[in-house]
Structures are given as structure tokens and as C-alpha cells.
């Protein structure tokens, strides 16, 4: 079976055919990882740019490894060039970080012509991700977000908690701020029921007397500083 993935020693100048063959496999395997991530995703809205990043990341990693080869000087040069780039994107979900590393690891393995490692690692990673998605440890039960709202003199808070119990599987108060004019600002981390209607939730929240500035923010992937 693994004759389709002949491991080869790293050499300085691979032929055009070897480069093309390697990069195609890198893209195919990382695309499988990206598809697995999309299938097991349980957030509010799946961003297409994250999918493309997973699919294309292995090609970049493979090209870097092929360019470096066994040369220490080229490795230090590539490290210096990458150090000049400032990555300002913060990934909040540990699971998303692991998928990014999986995609890059495929590229690293392909870049040193370790086809068997890349193939077996991708199949095992995707299989285990699907198994966990179907297990009790799955994150598909709810949609996470941040709820912020303002109450006049703190009135209506009991009604807010009743609505949270109705539409959310879990919620925790993160911050409560008292203003000089008698208003209170609340921030909650919430997890909606998978079949819950977010619009009805907002309508009931806004229908509460003395409730102002009701807002839900979904933070599935990342924040920009």
C-alpha cells in the first residue's frame, strides 16, 4: 500500500517532477485535514479563510523545507526572514491551533520526502478527530458567545437569568460594572442550545423593562489586536 509513498532522502536540488509530486500530496493531505475540521466544526459560522489557511499551509511549509534542505546557513536565513513577519492574529481555541499544526506538520514531512509519515499521520489525525466529534467529549452541543447588556438600577436581572436558563446550556458572569448614573453593565459567557433560536432570545431580552444595549458576540476562532 505504501509503495505509493516512497520515502526519499533529502537532497539539495530535487527535480521538477519530485517537487510537483510532493506539493500536490501536501495540498491533498492538508485539504483532508481542512475538510475534517469543517465537518467537526460546531461554532456559529465557519470562516472560509480558515479553511483555505489549513489547505494551503502545508504547501508553504513543504516549500520552506525543500529550500532549506540540509543547509544550516539556509535554515538560519529562513528563520531570520520569518522572524521579520509579525503575526498579530491570536487563536483562542486550542483545537484550532492543533489543526493548524497538523496542516503544517504535513508540509514539513512532505518537505523532507517523508510521504509515509505524512500519509499515516493525516489519516490517523482525521480519524481520531471524527471519533472525538461523535463521542461524549464533542463540542457540537452548543454555540458559544459573549452576551453584554445594561440594566437600569439592576432591575430585571432575575428575568434575564430565567431567559438564560431557557435558551442556554451553560452561562457564567464575567464582569459586572456599576455606573455613576445607577446603570449596571453585564458581560456573560454563554453557550446556546444547539437547536436554540438566537433571534427569539434577543427579542425576549430586549422585551425586559430597563434592559438596554443587548448584544451577542460570537468568538469562534480569533481576535485581531
Please tell me about this protein's structure.
This protein is α+β, with helices and mostly antiparallel strands. It folds into two domains: 2-134, no CATH class; 142-219, ACT domain (Alpha-Beta Plaits, 2-Layer Sandwich), CATH 3.30.70. Helix content is 52%, strand content 20%. The chain is built from seven helices and six strands, in the order H-H-H-E-H-H-E-H-E-E-H-E-E. It has helices spanning 16-39, 48-68, 72-83, 94-111, 115-134, 157-167, 198-207; strands spanning 89-91, 142-152, 168-178, 183-193, 211-217, 222-224. The strands form two sheets. A four-stranded antiparallel β-sheet has the order 3-4-2-5, covered by helices on one side. A two-stranded antiparallel sheet has the order 1-6. A hairpin with a 4-residue loop joins strand 3 and strand 4 (183-193). Helix 1 packs antiparallel against helix 2, helix 2 (48-68) packs parallel to helix 4 and helix 6 (157-167) runs antiparallel to helix 7 (198-207). The longest helix is centred in the N-terminal third of the chain and has 24 residues, at 16-39. The protein is elongated and about 75 Å long. The model is unreliable at 221-225 (pLDDT under 50). The chain crosses the membrane at residues 20-41, 53-85, 97-130.
Amino acid at each position: 500500500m505504501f509503495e505509493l509513498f516512497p520515502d526519499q532522502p533529502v537532497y539539495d536540488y530535487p527535480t521538477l517532477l519530485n517537487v510537483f509530486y510532493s506539493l500536490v500530496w501536501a495540498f491533498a493531505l492538508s485539504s483532508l485535514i481542512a475538510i475534517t475540521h469543517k465537518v467537526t466544526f460546531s461554532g456559529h459560522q465557519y470562516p472560509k479563510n480558515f479553511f483555505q489557511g489549513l489547505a494551503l499551509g502545508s504547501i508553504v511549509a513543504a516549500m520552506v523545507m525543500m529550500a532549506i534542505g540540509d543547509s544550516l546557513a539556509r535554515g538560519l536565513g529562513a528563520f531570520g526572514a520569518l522572524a521579520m513577519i509579525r503575526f498579530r492574529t491570536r487563536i483562542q481555541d486550542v483545537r484550532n491551533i492543533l489543526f493548524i499544526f497538523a496542516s503544517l506538520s504535513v508540509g514539513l514531512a512532505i518537505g523532507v520526502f517523508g510521504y509515509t509519515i505524512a500519509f499515516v499521520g493525516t489519516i490517523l489525525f482525521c480519524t481520531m478527530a471524527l471519533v472525538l466529534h461523535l463521542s461524549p467529549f464533542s463540542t457540537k452541543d452548543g454555540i458559544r458567545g459573549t452576551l453584554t447588556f445594561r440594566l437600569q438600577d439592576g432591575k430585571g436581572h432575575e428575568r434575564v437569568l430565567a431567559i438564560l436558563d431557557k435558551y442556554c446550556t451553560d452561562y457564567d458572569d464575567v464582569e459586572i460594572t456599576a455606573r455613576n448614573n445607577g446603570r449596571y453593565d453585564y458581560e456573560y459567557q454563554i453557550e446556546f442550545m444547539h437547536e436554540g433560536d438566537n433571534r427569539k432570545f434577543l427579542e425576549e431580552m430586549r422585551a425586559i423593562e430597563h434592559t438596554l444595549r443587548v448584544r451577542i458576540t460570537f468568538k469562534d476562532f480569533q481576535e485581531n489586536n
